[in-house]
Amino acid sequence: MGSLRLKAVMILGRGEPPGLSQAYKENNRDLARKILSTSVVKYALKKVGTPFLYKPSRILGAMGAKNNQETSWYDTLDADNFDVYRPGMDGCYQCPIRCRP
Question: Which residues are CB-contacts of 35 (< 8 A; sequence separation ≥ 6)?
Fold first, then answer.
């Protein structure tokens, strides 16, 4: 899209939010309980946050850099080195894990 010098996309219309059944909401709550009960989420993600996943991703070469042209990162990009830069823990909207520092 950048090569076409596209600046914006405009869509007209209105959409109604989907109606969620009670069974769907209960299933979501059950999934959230299962996710929160795992040890990785309970301890690592809640304590350290998403940067916990940087080291495993770096070791596996699964975290892309420079538009996924490279997969190498610095060893200093790790959860242990982020503590001085984050003032507190917060979370994404309606996320049960609340792991984003």
Answer: 41, 96, 97
**For residues 90 and 94, what is the distance between their CA atoms, to the nearest angstrom?**
11
What percent of the chain is modeled with pLDDT above 70?
Answer: 80
Residue position matching structure tokens 């609340």: 98
Phi first, then psi, for residue 88 (nearest 5°) are -175, 180
The whole-angstrom separation of Cα 83 and Cα 78 is 10
| Confidence (pTM) | 0.43
Could you give the CA distance from residue 71 to residue 57 in angstroms, rounded to a whole number?
Answer: 9
